[in-house]
Amino acid sequence: MNRLFVALLGSMLFLMSCDRTEDISISKKEDFTLECAKSAWSQDSRAVVDDKGIGCFEEGDRIDVWTKVGEGTSNVWLQYEGGRWTPSLKRVNNGQGTWTLSALFPVLSQPVGDATRRILNLPLNQSIAVNKQEADILFAQTTVGSEESSAKLLFKHALHQINIHLKGTVPENLELKIRSCTNGEISLVDGSVNLSSKKSYYWITPLKTAEHTYSAIILPQDASDYQKGDGLLRLTYGEKEISYSLDSEVQSFKPGMQTTLNLTLKSGDTGVDDEVVDTEFANQTRWVYGINSPACPGIDELQTYPDWMSSFPDGVWFRYEYNGLPDNVTYLTWKENCGWYDCNKTIDYKGGDNNMCWAATASNLLHWWLEHNSKYVEAYEAVHPESSCPKEYRRMTENDQNHSDIFAFFKNSFPNLGSWETGGVNWFINGDGQKLNANYNTDFKGFFSEVFSKDNVVATDTYNMSKKNFNNWMKDAFRNHKAIGFSVYGFANANEGLHAMTIWGAEFDAEGNVAYLYFCDNNSADQDPNYGAVKRFKVVYQLAGASGDKTRETFLAPLDKLDGTPTKRTSTICSLTLVDLRQDIWRKAFPGV
Fold this sequence. Notes:
Elements: E1 3-15, E2 18-23, E3 33-39, E4 48-49, E5 55-56, E6 62-69, E7 72-81, E8 84-86, H1 91-94, E9 99-105, E10 117-121, H2 129-135, E11 138-144, E12 150-157, E13 160-168, E14 175-181, E15 183-187, E16 193-195, E17 201-204, E18 207-210, E19 213-218, E20 221-222, E21 233-237, E22 240-244, E23 252-253, E24 257-268, H3 272-275, E25 285-287, E26 303-306, E27 317-322, E28 325-326, E29 331-333, H4 357-372, H5 374-383, H6 405-413, H7 421-430, E30 459-462, H8 467-479, E31 482-489, E32 498-508, E33 514-520, E34 533-541, E35 554-557, E36 571-580, H9 583-589
Parallel strand pairs: 3-12, 13-24, 26-27
Antiparallel strand pairs: 1-24, 2-3, 4-5, 6-7, 6-9, 7-8, 9-11, 10-15, 11-12, 13-19, 14-17, 14-21, 15-16, 18-19, 20-23, 21-22, 25-32, 27-28, 27-29, 29-34, 30-36, 31-32, 31-36, 32-33, 33-34, 34-35, 35-36
Helix pairs in contact: 4-6, 4-7
């Protein structure tokens, strides 16, 4: 019999927006007018869905409300009846000061001796819609001024949803189950979830929401327990059983968010690594989020220019022509509003910045981060004008070589020594100086430290450059709106050390693995067309020497020669840095943006 293979094609975490706000209480002289909004993931959530997909509460629904005024607290259940909640909240019963209101839906059991927490015990059979609905716990919280007689409670998902889409060869008798800790407690005060002190793992049967598509609710928890052992999923058909373990790119199951796994099942007689085809990425070109640039055309369509030219059109792919013969190096020139950045060192490094590749790379990533968080940055700087950060980026010219205000800030803050772009990004935002050499700006706390603490990591990195891990991290960036930095050993010369650069795009082969990188090199700016360009290089996978170290099997190489002969020179890709927009943190600080 054929064996069944499964491979992770993607995981995507994203917050869901609320669907509708509905008045549900009638104001009286002493009554407190309450508005509630209820968010829904999809039609199989707890929300009642009409033909427009709009959710609302049902007759008989009950919410568990916690009120805090000063040091005093009270707790009451409200039930939805006749288009309003009863009994109505009253100022006279709950105090006249500032209220903090929080609520859970539905009403849950209370543990002995703690009025602030409620028991979570998720149903294992969520294949029945009503059982999955019971698992979908919603939490809301707001603050009400002492003079206010109304409030709005926005109910958001407090737990985590897992969605699974199966593709490929899916047996008719396939059974799928999800492994998880299902017991814990949730706070009525702030909605936080704690697992039971003694972790117990159970198998959840998910709801089938469409053909080969499943969904289940689990508790928020760390994902590391599902990257080993019995893994996260168990797939059985007939007498065969397969376990699926998460890759390291999924680090946790966060509250109010959902993870989507796209899995391809394929029959075959060889190993998993040889049989898996990632159809989500196969034969595609992907750009980092927000970039507006064309993919590199085929070699027959690629424009050529003579090598003596010094100025080129903006936003075009081309190659040089030497003595009537085209070169194999391809470039994409920078164009206004293209979405990518190429912060370069000064020409011939006369600005004393020859070792500042990490800072140039961090500057590229930060320009991108600021652009796509611009509304939040404006809101932040309106409240904290003293924290206004450098932002301007201009086209580099021979007369304007310090064309990035962020890069200039780094060069004024650090000596001309090597360091890490991951550290540079985090330091700029939250003041965390880890992975950085000594700097002149020791009192710097980060331009956004009032919102981002040092624990709020924006940039993360990995040094495991196995083919599998490298591709997982690259795909994570494209799926989840992250920018990419990387470091390469021996890029300029065979024995030269590490060099940091910025990846803005990639081409994937027929198997769904990265085959070519689009990246900016911050060295030798005078050799870049128009002083700013993306280069296209090939990615080569091979073991590094005889050691068998699979964490060093991803290499960068120039394109093959025009006759198809591969170039012999390769350089080792040593690390990847991913920069997250972290709009989950921004939303909490500026929910109105």
